[in-house]
Design brief:
The structure holds two protein chains of two kinds. Chain A is mainly alpha-helical. Chain A has a single domain, classed as ABC transporter involved in vitamin B12 uptake, BtuC (Orthogonal Bundle), CATH 1.10.3470. In chain A, helix 3 crosses helix 4. Chain A is globular, with a radius of gyration of 22 Å. Chain A starts with a helix and ends with a helix. Chain B is of the alpha/beta class. Chain B has two domains: 240 residues, 3-Layer(aba) Sandwich (Rossmann fold); 44 residues, no CATH class. Chain B is 31% helix and 24% strand. In chain B, strand 7, helix 6 and strand 8 form a beta-alpha-beta unit. Chain B is globular, with a radius of gyration of 19 Å. The two termini of chain B are 32 Å apart. Classes of the chains: A mainly alpha, B alpha/beta.
């Protein structure tokens, strides 16, 4: 890619036709990449439904899924296997997929709005707020043990409310210095986010120490897992995720302009303050809804947009959909790993898997990127 | 085109401009000059609608003669800039900011196309018209050879050319430039000012803040000198570009001689003159 750019720079006689066709080529390769990712997600849904204590072949899984959808496809599948595949595994795979997509879109949006490549839902205390809301629900018995058996909706509702309340608190704190809500400085926002985040995690620790009995369920919930989650959780989360995703996708062009900084964004005709508020709201809905149904899952929101940016560039019209697909892919397979790696049906929290896989991967990414930018710096001088 | 009347503005309660009144007629090509910290950038930001006028502190000096009834504001085409929607304002005024840093992860073409943001539709997409405007702006600013490069990998001078292209892409009716050629080499600087002059001949109103006195005198028919937040001099280049005026504003010895080719007045520094005013003088050449 760099070599291509260099030859392009040398060729002074590069004419309009060549440039327009190269632009078309770049659009075409982006569309091709997105189609490839979408296909990978669809294939992963089928393959992830095969894994478990009651294994199935991909053909059986595809048959069961298509037959459940009303298509006459393949040989009839054993009804009990079909139930396992469709009602248990598919529900979980779908939930993992939309959660991964939501976390990745939210991460890309947070990073774009705050112009900080290390930002995600944790930075502004949104994840912390959701975790605190859930802990409170568990402690107060509002959710109780029923939350873990999967038929209680009080816990997700509390988590979502906590996420939005944390965002409100952060915005309020940033405004404490005065001025309208639309003229917040991102440095102030990040500082307020860190303050709120730290305070909330202290509160969660306090809750844990207040009630020894609920410690294990709080801890388990905070680590993030899809164990025992089903379609009803997906049903609860998707409207908020869809709303948040629409808000963010609609403002993809604004994210590009925001990356130039406040002054230039306003020069180009963007009401930067208002745009940032809407984007933060959308991203908080996404991550709040994700945390509400799956607990706190780290690294997806951080790593996925980074990875996509390395390949496709920072243009958010490509970055957002590609991040969504890659996030879905990552979380579907992390969940497969989480529920299959331990013997005897025991499960790892999926948050642990993403952190274990994501951490070293991220280090690798940083190291390679460091080398690459060093090279560029040398070239520039 | 753009009219500032009795404009007082600044940052965090500290006024930088004190009651500045200025009228740029459509099709004018003016340079904004003055020592460091005289308020050039602040004035450009205010004229671009990015810095609101301070209320209740309107100065009384300098506000005479422009006849407007309102106190302390900027108008563009007779409309108050403070109440004009941001998008509409961005379609009327294009800017090249000072000290911008290139964003990471965007190609030059994508960056220039962002100039069309204010013209993009409800869903924010860019259409064939936007692509054509982008291409034309890249061509006019001599940036076609940079188009597919990463903006983050450009040199300082290359990035300035790209910012100029983005301003052209944004719109050409009024161009406000803040030190838009400071990192360019001599040939590129002449190229950029030739481009501005050509745009001006096609009807653009151009106001450019610049430290290079001679470049301003060579190209701009009108010079506006700021000093300590007030307009010190404003008039046709041939009238205001005199040794006495320049000595007065920059507080160092300056000689003026005609340009050997065009005859435009050109300033020459005198070494060792009045060392106490060193910092401002050092930037003149």
């Amino acid at each position: 890619m760099a070599a291509e750019a260099r030859t392009g720079g040398r060729g002074k006689d590069a004419n309009t036709g060549v440039l327009v066709s190269s632009r078309r080529r770049s659009i075409r390769s982006a569309v091709f990449g997105l189609a490839l990712l979408a296909f990978a997600v669809l294939a992963s849904i089928v393959l992830a439904c095969c894994v478990g204590s009651f294994p199935a072949t991909p053909g059986q899984a595809l048959g069961a899924l298509l037959q459940a959808a009303g298509f006459a496809y393949g040989a009839p599948v054993d009804p009990s296997l079909a139930v396992v595949i469709v009602d248990i595994r598919l529900a979980r795979v779908v939930l993992a997929g939309i959660t991964g997509a939501a976390l990745a879109i939210a991460g890309a949006a947070f990073q774009g709005v705050l112009r900080n490549p290390l930002a995600d839902a944790f930075t502004l205390g949104v994840s912390g707020g959701a975790a605190f809301g859930a802990s409170l629900a568990i402690l107060s018995g509002l959710a109780g043990a029923a939350a873990l058996s999967g038929d209680d909706r009080a816990l997700p509702a509390c988590a979502l409310a906590g996420a939005l309340a944390a965002l409100g608190l952060v915005l309020g704190l940033s405004r404490a210095g005065g001025g309208p809500l639309s003229s917040l400085r991102r440095e102030t926002l990040v500082l307020a986010g860190i303050v709120v985040s730290t305070f909330l995690s202290a509160l969660i620790s306090l809750l844990k120490s207040l009630d020894e009995e609920s410690v294990s369920s709080i801890v388990f919930w905070i680590m993030g897992s899809f164990q025992g989650r089903g379609f009803e959780h997906a049903q609860l989360a998707w409207p908020y995720m869809l709303l948040g995703a629409l808000l963010v996708f609609w403002r993809a062009g604004e994210l590009d302009v925001l990356s130039l900084g406040e002054t230039q964004a306003r020069m180009l005709g963007l009401d930067a303050g208002r745009s940032r508020l809407w984007l933060l709201f959308g991203a908080s809905l996404l991550s709040g809804a994700a945390v509400a149904v799956s607990g706190v899952i780290g690294f997806v929101g951080l790593v996925v947009p980074h990875l996509v940016r390395l390949v496709l560039g920072a243009g958010h019209r490509r970055l957002l959909p590609a991040s969504a697909l890659l996030g879905a892919l990552l979380l579907i397979w992390s969940d497969v790993l989480a529920r299959s790696v331990l013997p005897g049906g025991a499960e790892l929290p999926v948050g642990v898997v993403t952190a274990l896989v994501g951490g070293p991967f991220f280090c690798l990414l940083l190291a390679r990127r460091g080398l690459a930018s060093g090279k560029n710096g040398g070239g520039r001088a | 085109m753009i009219r500032a009347h009795n404009l007082t503005c600044g940052y965090a309660g500290r006024a930088v401009l004190h009651g500045v009144s200025l009228h740029l007629a459509p099709g004018e090509f003016a340079a904004l000059l003055g020592p460091n910290g005289s308020g050039k950038t602040t004035l450009l930001l205010a004229l671009a609608g990015l810095l609101p006028a301070m209320t209740g502190k309107a100065g009384s000096d300098g506000g005479v003669g422009s006849g407007g009834a309102k106190s302390g504001g900027v108008e563009i085409g007779g409309r108050d800039l403070a109440t004009l929607p941001v998008r509409e304002r961005a379609r009327l005024i294009s800017c090249v900011p000072q000290g911008a840093t290139p964003p990471q992860g965007y190609t030059v073409r994508e960056l220039v196309r962002m100039g069309r943001f204010a013209s993009s539709g409800f869903w924010g997409g860019y259409g064939p018209q936007d692509e054509a405007a982008t291409q034309a702006a890249l061509a006019d600013a001599h940036c076609l050879d940079l188009a597919e490069r990463q903006a983050g990998e450009l040199s300082g001078g290359e990035f300035q050319r790209v910012l100029l292209a983005r301003a052209l892409c944004q719109g050409r009716s009024a161009l406000l430039l803040d030190e838009a050629t400071s990192a360019l080499d001599l040939a590129r600087r002449v190229e950029a000012f030739d481009l501005l002059a050509a745009q001006n001949r096609q009807g653009s109103t151009v106001l450019t803040a610049v430290h290079d006195l001679n470049l301003a005198a060579l190209y701009c028919p009108r010079l506006i000198f700021l000093k300590a937040g007030r307009i010190a001099l404003d008039g046709p280049t041939t009238e205001v570009f005199t040794e006495a005026n320049l000595k007065d504003i920059y507080e160092t010895d300056i000689r003026v001689a005609p340009h050997p080719v065009t005859g435009a007045p050109q300033a020459h520094l005198v070494p060792g003159a009045q060392p106490h005013s060193g910092p401002a003088a050092a930037l003149l050449g």
